[in-house]
Amino acid sequence: MLAYRYWGDKELRLEEAPAPVLGDEGALVKIKACSICGTDVRMYRFGSEKTDKGRIVGHEMVGLIMELAPGLPGDFKVGDYVSMAPAIGCGECYSCRKGHTNMCDRLATMGFQYDGGFAEYAVFPKKAFFMGNVYTLPCLNDVVPFTLSEPLACVINAQSYLHIEAGADVVIFGSGIIGCMHAELVRAQGARVFIVEPSEERRQQVKDLLTDVTFVTGGKEGAAGEIIRLTGGKGADVAIIACSVGSAQSDGLRSLAKCGRLSLFGGLPGDGLGFLDSNRIHYYEIGVFGVHASTPAQNKTAMELLYSGKFDAGKFISKRYPISKIETAFKEVAEGSILKAVIVMD
Ligand SMILES: [Zn+2]
Ligand SMILES: [Zn+2]
C-alpha cells in the first residue's frame, strides 16, 4: 500500500509499505480520509523529535473496520465507519486516573508512536478501544468532514479552561483552521470575536467562511494596541494564540484586560522560552493556560457537534487530494495557500 512516512530531520516520503496485519491489536481499518493537521505541517517544516523514524504519519482519520479482534468493549462491527481520539492514554498513571488521558505520562499517539492514517490501511490499537478512544460515525454518506472532529476536540479542550461568556471580547491570533474553529465556537457562545491576521491572502481566504468577526491586521498600532482601542480601552477578556509565533504570545498577553485569560494553543518550534511578561501576568491577574491534544470525551462532543449540524466543518475543507498527491498537499498547506487539506482514499 502507499504510505506517507517520517524518516527524521524533516524528511517525509510517500512510499510503498507492507499493508498492516491485525495481529494482537484492536481493528484493521481501511482508511477513508485523513486530514493534514498543523502538527503534521510543523513536522514537515521543522522535523519532530516526538515521532519515531519510519512512522506512518496522520492522526485525523476516519475509516472502515475490515477486521476486528474478539472481546473488545462496545458494539463495534466489521463495516462500521470509525474515527478515534488519536492520543491514547495508559489508563494507569496519575493524569489518566484523573480523566486527563491526553496528559498521560506514557501517551502514545497515532501518527507519532503508532502508525497513522496517511496510508490505505491502519491498525487501531486494542488499547484505543479499552480507553474509549474509538467511536463509530453515525452516518455513512460524506464522512470526510468527520476528520475534523479531532482538531475541533482540541479547540473544545482549550476553551474548557477559558470561561467564555456571552458578551465577552475574545481575540484569536491566527486565522488558520484552528483559529477559524475557535472563532465559530466562541461566536456560538455569544461572545464578540476579533481575529488578528496580518496576511491579506489569508484574510481573503476565510472572510466568507466566518461571519460577525472583526479582523485586525496589527499594522502601525500593533495588534495589542488595536484590540485595546476596539474594546473601549479595557482589552480582551480572552486571547487565544492559534498560531506558532512567539511574538503573537507576547501580543496576546498585552491585548488582555485585567483578569483576562490567555490560551497558548499553538506550540512553538524550539524551546518556547522568553515571550511572556511575568509582571503583566502578576499585576493583571492573568490566567495562562496550555493545551495539548484532547480526551476521548471531547472527541465525542466534537463528533456530535458535527453530526447535529451545529458545527459546519465541511466549509473549512479547502481541497481533497488522493494519497498519490500527498506531497503536493503538504507543500500547498505549508505555503499557506490552502486552509485545510484532506487526503481521501479511493
Ligand atoms: Zn490534529
Ligand atoms: Zn496514563
Key attributes of the depicted protein:
single chain; 346 residues; alpha/beta; Quinone Oxidoreductase, Chain A, domain 1; Rossmann fold; 2 domains; seven-stranded mixed β-sheet; six-stranded parallel β-sheet; 11 helices; 27% helix; 25% strand; binds zinc ion
Explain the layout of strands and helices.
Layout: E1 2-6, E2 12-16, E3 27-35, H1 38-46, E4 55-56, E5 60-68, E6 81-84, E7 87-88, H2 94-97, E8 108-109, E9 121-124, H3 126-130, E10 134-136, H4 149-159, E11 169-173, H5 177-188, E12 192-196, H6 200-206, E13 213-216, H7 223-230, E14 236-241, H8 246-254, E15 256-264, H9 278-284, E16 287-290, H10 296-307, E17 319-321, H11 326-335, E18 341-344
Parallel strand pairs: 11-12, 11-14, 12-13, 14-15, 15-16, 17-18
Antiparallel strand pairs: 1-2, 1-4, 3-5, 3-9, 3-18, 5-6, 6-10, 7-8
Helix pairs in contact: 4-5, 4-10
